[in-house]
Design a protein that fits this description.
The protein is an alpha+beta fold and 354 residues long. Helix content is 19%, strand content 36%. It has 4 domains: 29-102, eubacterium ventriosum atcc fold, CATH 2.60.480; 107-192, no CATH class; 194-255, Antifreeze-like/N-acetylneuraminic acid synthase C-terminal domain (Type Iii Antifreeze Protein Isoform Hplc 12, Alpha-Beta Complex), CATH 3.90.1210.10; 258-317, SH3 type barrels (Roll). The strands form 8 sheets. Strands 9, 11, 12, 13 and 14 form a 5-stranded antiparallel beta sheet that branches. Strands 18-19-21-22-23 form a 5-stranded mixed barrel. Mean pLDDT is 83; it is low at 1-26, 323-328 and 330-349.
C-alpha cells in the first residue's frame, strides 16, 4: 500500500514538472537554424548559423569561404558541431544545408583604370582623365577586398616619365575596421587622346556626307592634329576633296553643298531699283550659297560674275541707276524732287546686254 502511494505521488510530481517545463518552453527562445547567411569576416561563428544563440554566439566554428564566394554546410554537421559546444535542442526547420556567403568589396578593372587616370589628370600637360588611354605592363584584374575596405581608391604615389610616357601609380583603399589599408602598384604607359570624326568609306570629292558615312573614334592627340570636324555638324556638308576611309576629317575638308554645278543651266537675276530682269545663263564654276562664280549670259554671250542665291540661281550686280536731268525744267512742269530711285531705260538695257 505504501509503495502504491509513493508511485502515485511520484507520478503527480512528474506531471507537474512537465507542465512547468512546457510553460517555460513557451517563453524561452529556442535556437533555430538559418537557411542562408552572409559573413563579413574570415570565420563563421555560432551566431551566424542559428538564431537565438545566446552567450555562444561569438564562438568560431568554421572557416569562411573565399571572398565573394558561397559554400554550403550540411545541417547534420552543424548540429553535431553545436552539440560539441553544448548548444543543444536546435530546431533545424527541416533545413538540409546552410548556404554561407563571404561578403566582399569588388573593384572592377574599370574602377582601377579610372583611379589611375585620375591620378594622372591635369599633370605633365595632360587633360581630363576621360581623354587618357592607359596600357598596363601586366593584365589588370578586378580586386576582391574584405567588405571592411570601404574607402575609394586613392593615389598615394604618382610618378611619370615624359620620355617614354610611363607612369608608376600606387593606389590605396582604406579599411573602416582599423586594419591596414590595401595598396596596389600599377605601371604602364599613357597617351592622351581626342575624339575625331572618320569616314566609314572612301568619300569622293563633291559628295554629300550622310550619317552612315561618319563615325567617331579616339585617336592619339599627337597624331590627330587640329581643325577636327564635328560629326553631327558634318552631316549634310560636301566633301571639298577626296577622303579615305578611316582618315580623320578636318573642317577644311568640308563645305556647304554646291547649289550650282559647273556647266549647269542657271537663271541670272539682274536687279536695279524698280526693275528686275531674268536671263538664261550657264555656270562656268560650281559654288555654294554666297559664293561668287563666273557665268555666261546666253543672250549677250558675255561672261559675268554673280553670287549664288539658291539652287540654279545667280544674282548679277547690275550697273547703278543713272540720274538724267535736263539743264532747265520745262515751263509747263511743276517743280519736282528728282532722286536716283527712278532708273532710266538705259539701265535695263545695260543689264540685259551684260
Amino acid at each position: 500500500m505504501m509503495i502504491r502511494s509513493t508511485l502515485i505521488a511520484a507520478t503527480l510530481i512528474a506531471l507537474t514538472a512537465n507542465a512547468f517545463a512546457q510553460s517555460d518552453l513557451g517563453t524561452i527562445a529556442i535556437p533555430a537554424l538559418r537557411p542562408s547567411v552572409t559573413v563579413t569576416g574570415d570565420i563563421v561563428r555560432i551566431g551566424d548559423v542559428i538564431d537565438n544563440a545566446g552567450p555562444a554566439a561569438q564562438i568560431a566554428i568554421y572557416r569562411a569561404p573565399d571572398l565573394g564566394t558561397t559554400g554550403s554546410l550540411p545541417a547534420e554537421q552543424i548540429v553535431a558541431t553545436l552539440r560539441n559546444h553544448r548548444v543543444i535542442g536546435v530546431d533545424t526547420r527541416d533545413i538540409r544545408e546552410v548556404m554561407v556567403t563571404r561578403a566582399s568589396r569588388v573593384l572592377s578593372v574599370r574602377d582601377i583604370e579610372r583611379a589611375v587616370a585620375l591620378a594622372l589628370e591635369q599633370r605633365n600637360g595632360f587633360g581630363d582623365a576621360a581623354d587618357l588611354s592607359l596600357t598596363f605592363d601586366r593584365d589588370v584584374r578586378m580586386m576582391q577586398l574584405d567588405a571592411s575596405f570601404t574607402g575609394e581608391p586613392n593615389a598615394v604615389s604618382v610618378r611619370f616619365e615624359p620620355r617614354g610616357a610611363r607612369f608608376d601609380v600606387t593606389l590605396e583603399v582604406g579599411n573602416n575596421a582599423g586594419a591596414a589599408p590595401n595598396r596596389q602598384r600599377f605601371t604602364g604607359t599613357v597617351v592622351e587622346t581626342v575624339q575625331v570624326s572618320v569616314g566609314t568609306r572612301n568619300i569622293e570629292r563633291n559628295e554629300l556626307l550622310k550619317a552612315g558615312d561618319i563615325v567617331t573614334e579616339r585617336r592619339p592627340k599627337t597624331e590627330a592634329g587640329g581643325d577636327l570636324a564635328n560629326r553631327d555638324r558634318s552631316i549634310g556638308l560636301q566633301a571639298r576633296k577626296a577622303i579615305r576611309a578611316g582618315q580623320p576629317i578636318r573642317g577644311a575638308d568640308l563645305g556647304k553643298p554646291d547649289m550650282v554645278q559647273r556647266d549647269q543651266s542657271v537663271t541670272l537675276f539682274y536687279q536695279v531699283p524698280g526693275i528686275s530682269l531674268t536671263v538664261r545663263g550657264k555656270a562656268m564654276d560650281g559654288g555654294a550659297e554666297g559664293d561668287v562664280v563666273n557665268v555666261m549670259n546666253l543672250q549677250s554671250k558675255r561672261a559675268v560674275q554673280g553670287t549664288v542665291i539658291g539652287p540654279g540661281q545667280i544674282l548679277i550686280a547690275a550697273p547703278a541707276a543713272r540720274i538724267i536731268a535736263s539743264a532747265a525744267p520745262a515751263p509747263s512742269a511743276p517743280s519736282a524732287d528728282v532722286t536716283g530711285s527712278i532708273p532710266d531705260s538705259s539701265s535695263a538695257a545695260a543689264a540685259k546686254d551684260e
